[in-house]
Each structure stands twice: as C-alpha cells, then as structure tokens.
Amino acid sequence: MKDKLVIGNWKMNGNCEENQRLLAEALPELAAVTGVEVVVCPPFPYLAQVGAQLQGSPVSLGAQNVNAKERGAFTGEVSVPMLNDFECRFVLVGHSERRTLFGETDEMVAEKYAAALSGGVIPVLCVGETLEQRRAGLAENVIVGQLQAVASRVGGEAMAAGVIAYEPLWAIGTGESATPEQAQQIHGHIRQWLAGQLPSGTASPRLLYGGSLKADNAPALFAQPDIDGGLVGSAALEAQSFVTICRVAQACQ
Ligand SMILES: O=C[C@H](O)COP(=O)(O)O
C-alpha cells in the first residue's frame, strides 16, 4: 500500500521570514513522522528558499501551478522544466482557485497534467463541485467530467501516475469541511471510476481530501477507506496544525 500523502498548499501567503520560521518549527517534528509523504507548495518566488531549507529533510517540494508549454513568450508563466530545476516533485493542477478566478478550463488542466507527467513532475489533479451543483445532485457528474477531461487527453492508464485531490468548493477556506461520509462517498465514486480506467492489478492513485481540513477533523476524514491523505490550505500555514495533521495521517495507516 502507498504511503499516505499530506500536501500543504500555502497559496499566496508567506514571505522569506515567515517561511523560514514556519519550516524551522515544523521540520524537526515532521522528521519523526513515518509512513506519510509530506509536501509543501510555496509560491513560486520562494521555491529556492524553501527547497534549500528542505534539504536533508523527508519533506518534498511542490508547486501550486504550471504552464503546459515548455518555454516561450508567456509572460508571468512557469514551465515544467523550470519546476524541475528546483526539484519540485509535485505540482497542483486545476486547483479550484485557478479554475474559478483565472479561467482554467478542463482542457487547460488536462494539458498541464500531461505536461507535468511527461516532464517527470507528479500532477495533483484537483476536482470538486460547487454548492449549487451539489444541491442539484450533480456532484458526481461534475467530478467525473473533470476527471474524464484529463483521461481523454493522457489515456486512462496515466491516471495511475498522478494524485487526485477532491476539494468541494463550498468547503475551501470556509471553515466547513465535508463530513467524513460526504467525502468518502465522493472518494469511493472516484475510486470506482478509476477502476474502470486502469488495467486490472494497477495500483490506484492516492486520493486526497481538501477543504477546511484541520487537526480536529483530520482523524475522522483520514479514517475513511478511500481517503489517502489531504491537501491542506490555511492549516498548513501554522506549524503545529500541519504537524498534527501529518501525525494523524501516520496514525491512520
Ligand atoms: O489547496 C488547499 C485547499 O484549497 C483547501 O484550503 P483550506 O484548507 O484553506 O480550506
């Protein structure tokens, strides 16, 4: 069985001093966490700083976004080879904030996923429904549509090489997470959909839950059979909260 995976997405937060302090407090404690892969995704300008501070620790570096093109006249964008220069092991693709605030379509997300995979960076594909979609009973359809867009681009088998993060939009940054039952229901559905894509015997990719994931709700969420870890936003900015979430993941192995 794959290790649990906990990814801290710092979003557009931090500065040199805060980053240093956060990691100085968290890293010694994270070094004692076993059986859990831990990743932090700082904003682009801090990849070098954070990467240097992670040297010698078991924590990996990730990025929050990437452009599918390798190079060229794309002002403000960052490519997969650039992430490789900074030894980013993971990259988030299709985070809901990218989709809703920056107009990323399923097709763009699929291109990013494909580019990350071919460049050797593990894509973390973020999917999730709005509250309106959930109330209309469309959550599963919306999520399968987001997954299918990527599978159509890279082939169903390539879904095994990434990570999928289910983040209901109504739970992101709201303080109101999905209940463990709601999350498990969607994760189970994603797992079932994946089984239809992957050749039998292929290990399923890890499925993360994200959306107001905190130290206090992590135990019940991580105890669900199809939740393999978390994508943590605001709680990843507080060292003790993030460490506790990672410890909970360890306890739920
Ligand atoms: O990438 C992380 C998610 O958007 C969750 O953010 P949050 O934990 O602040 O709700």
Short key terms for the protein model shown above:
single chain, 253 residues, alpha/beta, TIM Barrel, globular, binds glyceraldehyde-3-phosphate, triose-phosphate isomerase activity, isomerase
Overall pLDDT level: 97
Order of helices and strands: EHEHEHEHHEHHEHEHEH
Question: What is the approximate shape?
Answer: globular
Number of distinct beta strands? 8
CATH architectural arrangement: Alpha-Beta Barrel
Q: Could you list the spans in which at least 5 consecutive residues all have pLDDT below 50?
A: none
Radius of gyration: 17 Å
Q: Helix amount, in percent?
A: 40-55%
At the fourth CATH level, what is the homologous superfamily?
Answer: Aldolase class I
Main sheet specs: 8 strands, parallel, barrel
Strand order of the largest sheet: 1-2-3-4-5-6-7-8
Determine and state the CATH class.
Answer: Alpha Beta
Helix tally?
10
User: What is the count of structural domains?
Assistant: 1
- CATH fold-level assignment: TIM Barrel
Give a verbal description of the structure.
Its main location: cytoplasm. This protein is an alpha/beta fold and 253 residues long. The protein has a single domain, classed as Alpha-Beta Barrel (TIM Barrel), CATH 3.20.20.70. The chain is 42% helix and 15% strand. Helix 5 (106-118) packs across helix 7 (139-154) and helix 7 packs parallel to helix 8. It is globular. The model has no long low-confidence stretch (mean pLDDT 97). It binds glyceraldehyde-3-phosphate.
